[in-house]
Design brief:
The protein has 221 residues and is α+β, with helices and mostly antiparallel strands. It contains nine helices and four strands. It has one domain: Glutaredoxin (3-Layer(aba) Sandwich). A four-stranded mixed β-sheet has the order 2-1-3-4, sandwiched between helices.
Length: 221
Amino acid sequence: MKIAYWSDFNCPNSDIGLNRVKQAAEELNLDFEWEMKAFELEPMLENTPTIPTVTKHAIKYGLTPEDAEAEISEIEEIACEEGLNINYKDAKVSNSRSAHRLVKFAQKKNPEVTQDLVFKIYEANFTNNRIIADIDVLSEIACEVGFSEDEVKTMLLNNSYDVEVNIDEEDARFNGLYSIPFYLIMINEEQLSIPGAFGKEDFKIAMEDLLNGEIRYKSFI
């Protein structure tokens, strides 16, 4: 059983959606192989943030600062209901490419700890408001799941796994995927594509129907 998903560390809905998928799998006692696929929402972001998140959100979506702050507060409230402590308003949104490269490195070297690494990067960005473009920050997170600081820093400084990130993003474009989060759940010979951060119960229903063969009679999109 496998769950492949396209997301970005600068997307709070990706964090919320992944948490829901994880909870659904755990409540059903399902053991999945996880694969994160890179999808940079804003690849031109600088490594050192200079614009407050509220301002960036307002510019990106054509909102007033007041409306942007209201939308951000709504996202934070939804996350809180899911048990996530997200402080999106104060997040220092930075370039996420190195974080994606680190995940590719982890998937290659020790796939068993990759999901833990993914959640820790989300936490660093949205809860602790650290700069995830910072190699020192990423190295520290990688050490928490068992990697060597020297090995990780060498990899990041050499731009290793850049090609793998490009392949994920090209694959997304080839398949007409232009928004995230996006989940591909595969059980036995059946698979289901789910765009967006559906509710936990919806994910559970999808997984159950994949298991019992009922998925062909239903649509979750």
